[in-house]
Input
Amino acid sequence: MTVPYKLIVFDFDGTLADSFDFFIEATNALAARYRFRPIAEGEVESLRGLHARAMMRHLGLPGWKLPLVARAFRRLMAERHDIVLFDGVAQALRELHAHGVQLALVTSNSYTNVCRTLGPRNMALLDYCQCETSLFGKRARLRRVLRQSGVAPHQAICIGDELRDGEAARDVGMAFGAVASGYTRLSSLAGQADAVFADPADLAGQLTGVAYS
Output
């Protein structure tokens, strides 16, 4: 069966990697150092419905501090060895690659963290990898991947777990696929998504129309 997209661009944290608990832990660990509000246990679920900009306002985190916090976040993650891929992600990448689809990754995380979590076999399946993207700089990186791949925007899909992922995809003319497993609640993402993936294990099946077991 023909795959509807020639290029699939994945986000990393919350899309391929199960890192939400670490995100909460790291955010609270950095709050005192960079003088913004920590995330209270009782507000986690409500914050999952917010855009990243709204969450920053809620935490009192100004934009000028964001690069500092992002670098510190990456350093903290580099010290951890318990961040793993969601179940089914590795198989989905293999199946999509076997169908001849170009695969890419665009993330604000570091190349070192991505490599350790994905592992060499999965990294080898990626045709393009853009790391340490600024939090609101995904549009430029998506355009770069489109140029590198030679794929027209309407033949590509960006798969992510945040509202800013969908906005970036729409701004460059790509489709957006929302995952239910990530940082933002699916109910908040569904309105701007061209496809919804309830389970990472369903990625390959939904995108190729082939059932895998």
User: Anything to note?
Assistant: Residues 7-18+84-208 form a domain with the Rossmann fold fold (CATH 3.40.50.1000). Strands lie at 7-10, 102-106, 128-130, 156-160, 175-179, 195-197. DSSP finds ten helices and six strands in the chain. The CA atoms of residues 127 and 211 lie 24 Å apart.
